[in-house]
Amino acid sequence: MKTLYHISDLHFGKDRPELIAPLLAELQKADFVSISGDLTQRARPSQFVAARNFIEQIEPPTLVVPGNHDVPLHNPFRRFVTPYRNYKKYVTRNFWPEIRTPELSVLGLNTVAPWHWQRGSIDGHQIGHLCRRLSQLQGLRVLVAHHPFEQSEDSSKALMRGAGKALGKLADAGLDLVLTGHLHQWRDDPFVAKGSGRQVMQIHVGTGLSSRLRNQQNDFAIIRTDGDHVEITRMSENGGRFEPALTRAYCRTERGWQSADQSG
Fold first, then answer.
1. Contact between 62 and 91 (Cβ < 8 Å)
2. Which of 79, 129, 151, 159 is most buried by its number of CB atoms within 10 A?
3. What is the pLDDT of residue 264?
4. By C-alpha distance, which of 224, 201, 173 is closest to 31?
5. Please, which residues have CB within 8 angstroms of residue 4's CB and are 6 or more apart in sequence?
6. Alpha-carbon span 142 to 146, nearest angstrom
7. Res 227: pLDDT
């Protein structure tokens, strides 16, 4: 069994410092860690330094992608000309990160669109690249991105540009799970990708460290994988510690993802 810990929306510069040590202590238990963007609040050098120091303390292999807060908001010139300057300097220049094992493969995707600061997008080049990579991978195939590919109709944020079309093609290429953030809200469930008919599991996590809570606690996800079985645990902050808040188990069948108690 492999364990992938997924965190998002750390927002250094608007973080809760008292949660840094408890979160880091939990992350050391993982086989792998993924961080789906918004490392900073306003993409400032000092905030990226704090984010880099945090990431460097994570011992398991860690995959990172940027979020919309990781490019400048209030400096239009830099946002359009050199949007990723600080991200590249302090975090990574790799915008196609991967973790590959026979049992679990994780791909990272940059969905930030500096010209559509909040909404994000995915284009044909990115879709083609991911489809080729997915077709070459083994085991459970996971995609990490900042912006969700599907969200509830009552969400106050617009869905990412190109999300529906992209998800159908990625599902056909073999995608199993999508790990995202952005909404600061927890959600985990399987759904049918439009245009594909194949089910994909999407896991939104809230914010791991930010004080910008939206009627939810700071949280992160633990994904345990063993063949066609996946167990998802929401770890939620309680009194300065992260504790299990709920656990759901699913089994991948010919009919798609089924709740473990329905998969027989």
1. no
2. 151
3. 39
4. 224
5. 30, 31, 32, 33, 34, 104, 106, 142, 222, 223, 225
6. 13
7. 87
d(CA 163, CA 186) in angstroms, rounded, equals 19
132: exposed, middle or buried (C-beta count within 10 Å: 0-12, 13-18, 19+)? exposed
DSSP-derived secondary structure for the chain: -EEEEEE----BTSB-GGGHHHHHHHHTT-SEEEEES--BSS--HHHHHHHHHHHHT--S-EEEE--GGGS-SS-HHHHHHSTTHHHHHHT-S-SS-EEE-SSEEEEE-----TTSTTT-B--HHHHHHHHHHHHT--SEEEEE-SS-SS--TT-SSPPPBTHHHHHHHHHHTT--EEEE-SSS--EEEEEEPTTT--EEEEEE---SSBS--SSS--EEEEEEEETTEEEEEEEEEETTEEEEEEEEEEEEETTEEEETTT--
37 vs 120: CA distance, rounded Å: 12
In one-letter notation, the amino acid at residue 125 is H
Task: Report the distance separating Cα 166 and Cα 121, nearest Å.
Answer: 10
**Would you say 205 and 186 are in contact if contact means Cβ atoms under 8 Å apart?**
yes
Contact (Cβ atoms closer than 8 angstroms) between residue 234 and residue 186: yes
Q: Which amino acid type is present at position 212? A: R
- Indicate the residue type of 86: N
* Cα–Cα dist 212/45, whole Å: 20
Task: Judge contact between 27 and 33, C-beta under 8 A.
Answer: yes
- Say if residues 216 and 245 touch (Cβ distance below 8 Å): no
For 126-166, write each residue's pLDDT tens digit: 999 999 999 999 899 999 999 999 887 777 788 999 998 99
